[in-house]
Model the fold of this input.
Amino acid sequence: MDKNKSIELPNTDGRLNSIGIIMDGNGRWAKKRHLPRSAGHVAGAKIIQRVLEDLREMGVHHVTLYAFSTENWRRPADEVEGLMDLIYKYLDEVVIPKIESDKDFSMRFLGDKSALSEKLRSKCIEVENMAKDRAFICNLALNYGGRDEIVTAVNSALAEGKTSITCEDIQRHLYTSASPDPDLIIRTGGEYRLSNFMLWQSAYSELYITDTLWPDFGREDIVKATEAFLSRRRRFGGLNEEDK
Ligand code: FPP
Done:
């Protein structure tokens, strides 16, 4: 029996609507097994759909996955090429059939597509055009950087003729304008940082960091992250009734 399926998912009472995930630890997962880093990325890609389905089952409607950052271009060329091929394959073989067969699933891309290969860029556009803003939206952050996103948003607001910028102006021009800010950001691989992920949107996100390496991220980890989230008291800078 699948170990993951035997674990019950918690009832979130609709409190967990939007999640961001920093999928870290693929390289270490591979190293532990004396495998090339690329094998870690392949293993990491394989678990994505299962994680998305579990989150959906708990009532989550928006999941943002950090697939490739604006800084990841600094990795060796063969690793970058391998990641790009893997992302293309995931879109072509997993995401497109999923959108065709599941009327509640859609995907958007966050980041600057202009630096992607023509082949990958057109696959992303094909995926986005297949379905827009269905009940469940997976945002794939690809050539994404939080600082770059904020600068791009400010420039878009200026291009509208604005001479002073409000928070709303920036919000409206972010890559995530179609998704609410994440309630929870999960980082696997044990590092305590955001690494340029959703810098604007994370202002009041709860953070959950686990040592589990991304390819090992199972239902047990989802349950732990969700329970940690449900136990937090969110105040958004104000006070709750019980704090007064
Ligand atoms: C970090 O692992 C992971 C990434 C560079 C991004 C996540 C990529 C995947 C999950 C695989 C492909 C993605 C899709 C959408 C199909 P790392 O190499 O930094 O790990 P390390 O910190 O152990 O070296």
Q: What stands out?
A: The two ends are 49 Å apart (CA to CA). Residues 23-28, 37, 41, 44-45, 48, 67, 72, 83, 86-87, 90, 140, 189, 214 surround farnesyl diphosphate (CB under 6 Å).
